[in-house]
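Recap quiz, item 2
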Amino acid sequence: MTADFGKFFVPGPTDVRPEVLAAMSQPMIAHRGPEFEAMFGRIQAGLRAVFRTERPVYVSSSSATGLMEAGIRCAPAGRMLALVNGGFSERFAKIADMCGRECDRYEVPAGSAHDPGELRKRLVGKKYVVITVVHSETSTGVLNDVRAINEIAHEQGVLCLIDSVSGLGGAPLEFDEWRCDYVLTGSQKALALPPGLAFAAASADFVEGAKQSHGRGVYFDIAEFDEFALKNQTPNTPAVSLLYAADAQLKSIVAEGMEARWARHAAMRDVVIAWTERTRDTVVSIVARPGERSPTVSAIRLPPPLKPQGFATEVRRLGYTLGAGYGALRDTTFRIGHMGDHTIESVRECLDACDSVLRGGTA
Ligand SMILES: *Cc1c(COP(=O)(O)O)cnc(C)c1O
């Protein structure tokens, strides 16, 4: 690794290792040929390990929002309930609105997680066909209990679409064991790939339902993704260079093992929590409540008169890039993306830089 790796802590895109960047400079291959199909087969094996599924995992040459829209467009007709607790879960609701779906919101304040018991109350009566939920709300650093939420949805006969864009690869998720309907993620978060790819798995029932869904469009048609994935292809010309990066990176992810990767992410989060507790009396505090903190991203409050933007600029002078606040928390927080290929050591170094700015009082 070069000295440049390990200093970029934006919660997406996150730092990408030089070896993965270098993999993208390989020459082009035809996407309807044996070399591509062999690579796609290897990528499938890696993605299945990450999603913990035997189902095909779709590869979309789009950002993650594309596969959020795919989930909405391909979901069965009927009223949706969007679980909203921050900027990205609100985006899911907005996509439903803009795709012409009837969608209500179950909203809790940014910084809170959803309560599965409360969700059950809202689902009883069978008014809803589908719910949407964000696993790791990247805007606030809150982790939703998607296992319980998915289970309650199923108990009420409702499908559950899960955005695990900053979750998958860093926070435990078991597609098959939890009998998930649809889970999507993006390349540039906990998988530590460059931006530009999105991945999703869907249950066989969800794919069958997609075939009946009118107005699902062409580019984000899950039924078509499924048909092509079975022959190790994508429906349209994929971003071949990014797939080279995925091929290289998924080998490393599989070699590390998912349990080890989840543990490393939890440990990185705990380093950040310990830091905020050490400094709580003086300056910073973490937005998410204990027990609801994402292993991949933390939103941290800086009380006035400290300004997150000025703070981030000072930390940047020391070589470390933090994430800005997002949405409703934009002016009061900064974020640390402790995900992907970061380590406890690189997170500690970043926090040391934060400390020295706080001590200097220059923010
Ligand atoms: C980053 C992110 C998205 C959007 O991803 P894009 O790749 O920018 O489309 C959606 N949901 C969550 C939770 C995210 O963190």
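The pocket of pyridoxal-5'-phosphate is lined by residues 12, 63-65, 88, 134, 138, 163, 165-166, 186, 189 (CB under 6 Å).
The first helix runs from residue 18 to 23.
End of item.
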